[in-house]
Specification:
The structure is a single chain. This protein folds into 2 domains: about 5-95, DNA polymerase, domain 1 (Orthogonal Bundle); about 110-260, Orthogonal Bundle (hpI Integrase, Chain A), CATH 1.10.443. It is built from 11 helices and 3 strands, in the order ααααααααβββααα. The protein is elongated and about 60 Å long. The termini are far apart. The protein is mainly α.
Length: about 260
Amino acid sequence: MTSSQSNVSPLRQRMTDDMRMRQLAPKTQDIYLHIVREFARFLGRSPDTATVEDLRRYQLYLVDHGTSAVSLNHAITGLKFFFTVTLDRPELMVRMQPVRVPRVLPVVLSPDEVRRLIEAAGNLKHQTALSVAYGAGLRASEVVALKVTDVDSERMTLRIEQGKGRRDRYAMLSPVLLERLRVWWRVARTQGRMLDGGWLFPGLDPLDPLSTRQLNRAIHAAAEAANIDKRVSMHTLRHYVPFRTMSGNPEIAWISRAIQAFG
């Protein structure tokens, strides 16, 4: 046992075990532990000593400090797991109620803005990764998890393993998006940056994938370079997937320039 493991409290270890038993995603486990840790900091004592009134006061504290509806509901969900599952005391959550999340229209980019955004990305890898997110409607985590073997050029599909909800699915490939991937594959292979059966978008070390943080930084930098004043994120590229096409002349021109530049 490492020193870090020996310093984990029995209560935290029990919650961690409960989450592992239910096969919660590692990211979800980290978020839930952070939520309980923040509650304990507010409480000033061990969270398993909390009362119904303590939890009510904490929700009021979060509201008074400007916590968004989404973050507030996340906090309630994490605390509900702790008190309902780990402590087996669901009655303590009776005064904590989720709040309604205001519905707002998503940020939508025009086809010209998407073209400018992708072309402004810093390198061919980022340009292709953003094209995949847009053309196939993938999340950032799904883009970076793609492997070369996930591209099926005969069926014109991308295999998405363990996407949202930990489910596998297929995404459709357009002919132009497939050609973009082929250009990127040829360039990366020539430069020795892509391994057989390896990551479709490798990091600095080909054994590791590009991280979601790197991809998010890339899209923010591209939006700034393209002078797009909308609030752009990787999620922005996923909107209205069924209605977009990637077969217009600007897309074909992009591929032609890439082939000329990289051979």
